[in-house]
Every structure is written in C-alpha cells, then in structure tokens.
Specification:
Helices cover about 65% and strands about 10% of the residues. The chain is of the alpha/beta class. The chain has a 5-stranded mixed beta sheet, sandwiched between helices. The longest helix is centred in the middle third of the chain and has 30 residues.
C-alpha cells in the first residue's frame, strides 16, 4: 500500500510540474466553458435591433397594443434617412431596417449574420400575421417582403473567408515568432548572432520580412481556393484593401509572439502561453461566429482582442463591400498594438537563458 501511495504521489507531482498537461487538462476546457457559457448561458434571446424607416403602421400598431411585449424582443429606433439605415444594416450596426409601402412591409437585412437576419424576419413576420388575424373575415391586409442590403449574388463564403483567414494568419504569426525566438535563445544562436558582423536589426528585419511574405502567400492561397466554383467567393470593390489589413495584422501578431518568446524560457512554456492566447481569441475575435448575441461584458472584452480588428477590417472590404476608408481604423489599431507589443518585447528581450 505504501508503494501505491508513493507512486501515486510521484505521478501527481509529475503532472503538476507539466505545464502543458495542466493547461490542456484544466485551463483549456475552462476557457471554453467561460466563452460558451457567456455566449449561451442565458436562456433568453437577445433583442433584435430594428430601424423603422418613416412610418410603419404594423410596428406602430404592435407598440400601441402590446408595448411591453414588443420591447422584450426588439429595440426599435425611428429614422428618416433610408440610405443611412441600410448602411447601418450592412455594417452590422443594426439587425434589420423596416419600411412600409402600401400593404407591403419591407425588411432589409444583411447576409453577414444569418442568425440575426433570420430572427428579425421571423419576429416581424409574426407581427404581420397577428395584424392580419386582427382583421378577421377580411383578406390579409399586409405581406412581408425580405430584401438583402448586399448584392444577392454574394454567398456566405464572402463572410466566412475573412474570419478563417484571420485565424490562420494570427496563429501562424504568433507561433512562428515565439518558437523562433525561444529556439534561437536556447540553442545559443542569438549569442552567436550578437557576435556576428551582421547587425541584429537586419536579422530580425529579415525574419519579419519573411513572415510578411509568407502571410501574403497564405492570403493568396486562401482567396484562390475560396474563389473556386464550389465556394464562389467574389472579389469586388475595395477587396485589395485587405492586403494592408493583413500586413498590419501580421505585424501585430508577430510582436505579440515576440513578447511571449522573450518571456518564455522553454518551447513548451511558449507553446502553452500561445495556445492560451490563441484559442479564446479565435472565438472572441469573431472568426467562427459574430458576437452580436453575446452578453455586453463579453462583447466589451472582445474589443481588446487584436483578432477582432483583423477580421473586421477584412470583412468590411471583402464581405460588406465598404470603401477603402472603412479599413483604416482597424489598420491603425493593429499598428498601435504592434508598436506597443514590440516595445514590451524589447524590454523583456534577453540574449541567453540566464
């Protein structure tokens, strides 16, 4: 029995010392619990944001007869500028815009968030049916017509590609930078480079240039595959603006990887930290699904996630068809992150393991 206890204690201590085992056994599942618990923990459905263009009798009637019920499921904002309302829907600032033309209620929605678009159409269709039922014995008074704010030829791949590409670019940049720096330090390569006649800034500059080149190749491959007939991606308008967005994003994630690589003492610890950063960031950055339905506290956290800005910048010009200027704020944020993270990496940098 004493031998069993000794073996059990030794194995437990070995597990406790193994940082990667601790991460994948406890922290990794816990992160998913926090993220998905925050997203889906509440049984109630989040409110649908609807812009009412001019006067819409169906909505006005619903607000008159059951204001509390309507306000539980929808946030209705009255607007007069139709073009501005449609732009807000296209940018994702509103879930739908509604206007009435005779006996038709037109619902304008965006294909960038199919869940919210479907929810908005379902709720508004229910209101139309209730209004029709109120006129018992008469022909249906109103009909619902749904219209996309984007070109109807656009497919879901327009909105999937930026998120998947952002995930791939960020992961590759962070893992590559962290692993390179830790490997060079643990194997004494950094010390030899310090003594070589080549300036160290040239060495790191070359590493950054290679990473940017690889990222551009990665982007080209993604866009080529997404444009195959089986997927149907269409590059129109200011899609080319995604290139500076990609470059700014890669610089930001390279700098973050350098921070991890400068701090970590071993490759295992570097991998663990990168994984702890990468996996939550993929969900909070909107690579897999939009965060519009998430609680406010989770949406607030997402604003400090660099991947959000990379994905959003590419989505604006590749999926939503917005102009080049729409990506400038995201580029500015990513370059700011790159600058701050680079300064932190320089502060933490060391030539050897001592």
């Amino acid at each position: 029995m004493s031998g069993f206890r000794s073996l059990a204690r030794a194995m437990f201590l070995s597990f406790k010392r193994d940082k990667r085992a601790m991460f994948f056994t406890i922290l990794f599942p816990l992160m998913f619990l926090v993220i998905f618990g925050g997203l889906y923990g509440n049984a109630s459905t989040s409110k649908v944001k609807v812009l009412e263009i001019g006067s819409v009798p169906v909505l006005d009637g619903a607000l008159t007869h059951d204001p509390a019920g309507v306000k539980e499921i929808m946030t209705i904002t009255k607007v007069t500028d139709r073009d501005a309302a449609l732009k807000k829907v296209g940018k994702g600032d509103a879930d739908a815009a509604v206007e009435q033309r005779g006996d038709q209620m037109l619902v304008h929605y965006s294909a960038s968030d199919g869940v919210k678009a479907g929810t908005a159409q379902g709720i508004l269709n229910a209101l139309v049916q209730e209004t029709n039922l109120a006129a018992t014995g008469k022909p249906p008074a109103y009909t619902l017509v749904a219209q996309r704010v984007e070109d109807k030829s656009l497919k879901a791949i327009q909105f999937i590609t930026p998120g998947m590409l952002g995930w791939a670019l960020s992961s590759a940049a962070m893992f590559g930078a962290a692993q390179t720096l830790v490997t060079w330090r643990t194997k004494g390569i950094l010390r030899r480079l310090q003594l070589s006649p080549v300036p160290i800034r040239n060495v790191f500059g070359a590493r950054v240039a290679v990473s940017l080149g690889v990222a551009l190749i990665q982007t080209a491959v993604f866009l080529f595959v997404a444009q195959l007939p089986m997927f149907g991606l269409k590059l129109t308008g200011a899609w080319w603006m995604s290139i500076p967005v990609v470059l700014a994003g890669v610089l930001a994630f390279l700098a973050i990887g350098m921070v991890v690589g400068a701090w970590a003492k071993t490759q295992d610890s570097a991998q663990t930290v990168i994984q702890m950063v990468t996996f939550p960031m993929v969900f909070l950055g909107g690579s897999f699904f939009p965060l519009d339905s998430a609680p406010k506290w989770l949406q607030t956290i997402s604003y400090v996630v660099p991947l959000r800005y990379l994905n959003q910048g590419m989505l604006n010009v590749m999926g939503r068809g917005l102009g080049p200027a729409s990506a400038l704020p995201q580029i500015g944020v990513l370059l700011g992150i790159a600058l701050v993270a680079s300064l932190v990496a320089v502060k933490l940098f060391r030539w050897d393991e001592t």
